[in-house]
């Protein structure tokens, strides 16, 4: 086997070497990298056995670096308190440091050819040099100082942290988004909020997020509005679904119920104005002395309409079956307009403990 050294980093106790090796016994063999940890006092050791090739942690970036070696990439993580892992693409000498690792973000750990994934805890602290004993805060990174009379490092802001403002949903974050200084991420509004603005959050040099997203709390526009249903069992009338009572014990609290023989039951509400309907919530029946019959909430269709005679514009569908006291959220397509909202199903009676409708005026 023939090898040549690509990278060397020396510390007080260790020397780190990266070599490219070519097997001599196989034809058409491909070169591969070997990382070796050499202890100055005890000799060579294989230190990087936990590298995970062909893998990458996605969309958990603090910062990225170009034209750096793998060891420099690891060092950037070692000197950044928030960093937990790194991704490295050798073909472009490209480094990504992450604020989570495989254990805390398992669904973001994926196969990705050409990448190497490594976790901070697998590396000796000595690699950070004088920064190994730094007192930097979680949102800072340690920088070595070449000349200093008091200490050999300084702490500078590294990121703005994870945005935690109420109403912000980070599920739309993109692969290139990062929380580092002068970086940005994409966000949207959580359920119960309407959104305007670009949806971008920009990390400023002072370590604070600048939010280019305006969040407006949505009100339940169905509350105490006029409601109807296809039939009624006993006194469990349609108005009980919009009375504001959020109890789910059918016998104690007030929930709607269509007649048992109604095979095509429906319930509707008149919003008294035209809205862009954002989403509809259904509070399902809970347990009572009859046991748990919450599974009856299934195959539910939600439609909207501009007139009472034509409530047929699709909003969404809940396959179910529901669970006890479940709050079912059904998102409508963008720009769904309606003055009326209808909930319907087939084969069994329809029971609703509360219905919330959220939207903004047209």
Automatic annotation (TrEMBL):
PANTHER family: F5_8 TYPE C DOMAIN-CONTAINING PROTEIN, FTP DOMAIN-CONTAINING PROTEIN. Keywords: Calcium, Disulfide bond, Lectin, Metal-binding, Sushi. InterPro entries: BG_Antigen-Binding_Lectin (IPR051941), FTP1 (IPR006585), Galactose-bd-like_sf (IPR008979), Pan_app (IPR003609), Sushi/SCR/CCP_sf (IPR035976), Sushi_SCR_CCP_dom (IPR000436). PROSITE patterns: SUSHI. The keyword Metal-binding applies. It comes from the Eukaryota. This is Fucolectin. Homotrimer. Signal peptide: none annotated. Pfam families: F5_F8_type_C_2, PAN_1, Sushi. Disulfide bonds join 160-203. Acts as a defensive agent. Recognizes blood group fucosylated oligosaccharides including A, B, H and Lewis B-type antigens. Does not recognize Lewis A antigen and has low affinity for monovalent haptens. Gene3D superfamilies: Complement Module, domain 1 (2.10.70.10), Galactose-binding domain-like (2.60.120.260), Hepatocyte Growth Factor (3.50.4.10). Belongs to the fucolectin family. GO terms for biological process: regulation of cellular defense response; regulation of complement activation, lectin pathway. Coiled coil: none annotated. One of its GO terms (molecular function) is fucose binding.
């Amino acid at each position: 086997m023939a090898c040549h050294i690509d990278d060397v980093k020396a510390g007080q106790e260790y020397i780190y070497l990266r070599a490219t090796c070519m097997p001599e016994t196989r034809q058409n063999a491909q070169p591969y990298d070997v990382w070796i940890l050499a202890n100055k006092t005890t000799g060579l050791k294989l230190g990087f056995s936990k590298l995970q090739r062909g893998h990458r942690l996605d969309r958990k970036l603090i910062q990225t670096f170009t034209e750096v070696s793998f060891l420099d990439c690891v060092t950037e993580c070692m000197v950044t308190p928030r960093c937990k892992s790194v991704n490295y693409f050798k073909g472009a000498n490209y480094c990504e440091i992450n604020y989570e690792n495989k254990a805390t973000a398992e669904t973001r750990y994926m196969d990705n050819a050409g990448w190497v994934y490594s976790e901070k805890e697998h590396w000796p602290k000595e690699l950070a040099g004088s920064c190994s004993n730094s007192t930097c805060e979680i949102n800072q990174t340690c920088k070595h100082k070449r000349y200093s009379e008091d200490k050999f490092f300084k702490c500078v802001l590294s990121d703005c942290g994870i945005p935690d403002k109420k109403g912000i949903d980070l599920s739309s974050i993109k692969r290139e988004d990062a929380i580092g200084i002068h970086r940005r991420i994409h966000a949207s509004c959580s359920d119960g909020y309407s959104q305007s603005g670009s949806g971008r959050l920009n990390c400023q040099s002072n370590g604070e997020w600048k939010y280019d997203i305006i969040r407006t709390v949505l009100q339940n526009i169905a509350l105490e509005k006029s409601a109807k249903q296809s039939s009624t069992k006993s006194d469990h009338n349609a108005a009980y679904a919009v009375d504001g009572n959020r109890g789910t014990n059918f016998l104690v609290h007030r929930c709607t119920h269509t007649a048992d023989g109604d095979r095509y039951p429906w319930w509707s509400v008149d919003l008294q104005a035209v809205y862009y309907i954002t989403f509809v919530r259904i509070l399902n029946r809970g347990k009572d002395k009859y046991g748990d019959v919450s599974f009856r909430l299934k195959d539910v269709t939600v439609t909207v309409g501009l007139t009472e005679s034509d409530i047929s514009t699709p909003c969404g569908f809940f396959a179910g079956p529901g669970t006890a006291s479940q709050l079912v959220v059904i998102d409508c397509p963008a720009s769904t307009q309606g003055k009326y909202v209808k909930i319907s199903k087939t084969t069994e009676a329809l029971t609703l403990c509360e219905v919330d409708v959220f939207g903004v005026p047209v």
